[in-house]
Each structure stands twice: as C-alpha cells, then as structure tokens.
Amino acid sequence: MTDKRLIRTYSGIFFSPLEPSPENIAPEDIAHALSLLCRANGHFRCFYSVGQHCLACEAEARAAGLHAETRLACLLHDASEAYISDITRPVKLGLPEYRVIEKRMQDTIYRRFGVDPEDSVIMCEVSRIDDAMLYHEFLALGGHALYDAAPAILTRPAFEFIPFEKTERQYMTVFNELFTEETK
C-alpha cells in the first residue's frame, strides 16, 4: 500500500508535500501540473491556467528588464500549487496552517532552483507583478476590476484559453532558459 502522506507526481516521484525534499522537485512536474490547474478556482469565462499566469508574470518581468533570478522567481511563484493545489485568497486568510505549509513548499522550490526567498527586493517585485496580473486577469476573464485603479503593465498577455500541452512546453522552455542563465 502507498504511504498516504505522499503524492505521486506526473513524473512518478513519490513526494511529501508536508516535508518537501528539494531533490524530488522536478520542473517537469511543476510545468505539467500548473498547466492543468485553473486560475480563480474556475470562475473565469474560460479555462486559464496557473501556468499561463506564471508565464505572463515572467514575461512582464522580462519586459521590465528585471534580472534572470527575478524572472525565474516570477515563473516559479505559484509552483507550490503543483504539489498542494491552491486555495482562494479569502479562504487562505482563515487557514494559517495552510499558509505555513504553502510557504515551506514555495521556499523549498525557490531554493531548489537558486532563488533566495528571503531576498525582499525580488519578492517585492514578484508580489507587485503577481497583483498586477491578478487585476488584469480578473478584468479580462471575470469581467470586474479588483482594485480602484488599474496597475500598469508593459505586456499584453493573451487572457484566453491555451491548450495545456502548449502552456506546459512554453513553461519548460522559459524555465530551461532561465535556470541555465541563473546557473552560469
């Protein structure tokens, strides 16, 4: 019988989301899972994946001329969802234990790929871009604005359905470009 404390990832790894081991974190698992997870808990006019969102955030960081480590952090900022799924922000506020699990998972992923989760400059940029994309996604795909003023973005993301296979391939292409660049 399988250990009930483990999940089996797309690549076949048995993984503990509560005690994440960096050597068991595979970018292929992240790309695959995020391309199949829908943003906004499915409350958009069409399927729009977490993977698409992460790619849009990375593209925005690239357009802003940010360093490769910040771009990689933008690409990976929701990677914990590949292992623990996601919970909407309002519910997350009432689940402090979940937020601890999510942070541990996310920090492990960042460190696995050379991003310092304690670098406040990088994390502030990631947060700023994430919130800006959130606004524009909800406006384009949900029909309403989340904030009084629209945060400026430099890119024009395709807020539309993209087949998961295409998103997964694009995620891996960008990841490989950035991870190679970061490790030089």
Written overview of the protein:
This protein is an all-alpha fold and 184 residues long. The protein has a single domain (7-17, 24-176), classed as Hypothetical protein af1432, CATH 1.10.3210.10. It has helices at residues 27-36, 50-63, 68-76, 81-84, 89-93, 96-112, 120-142, 164-182, and strands at 7-8, 14-15. A two-stranded antiparallel ribbon has the order 1-2. A hairpin with a 5-residue loop joins strand 1 and strand 2 (14-15).
Compact description:
With 184 residues, the chain is mostly helical.
Summed up, the helix count is 8
**What is the level-2 CATH architecture name?**
Orthogonal Bundle
Count of individual beta strands: 2
Oligomer classification: single chain
CATH superfamily: Hypothetical protein af1432
Query: What string, H for helix and E for strand, traces the elements in order?
Result: EEHHHHHHHH
Tally of distinct domains: 1
Radius of gyration: 16 Å
Stretches where pLDDT is under 50 for at least 5 consecutive residues are none
By CATH, the topology is: Hypothetical protein af1432
Q: What CATH first level would be assigned? A: Mainly Alpha
Q: Which range does the strand content fall in?
A: under 5%
- Supply the helix-strand structural class: mainly alpha
Distance between the termini: 43 Å
Which short descriptors sum up this protein?
single chain, 184 residues, mainly alpha, Hypothetical protein af1432, two-stranded antiparallel sheet, 8 helices, 2 strands, 2% strand, globular
Secondary-structure map:
Elements: E1 7-8, E2 14-15, H1 27-36, H2 50-63, H3 68-76, H4 81-84, H5 89-93, H6 96-112, H7 120-142, H8 164-182
Antiparallel strand pairs: 1-2
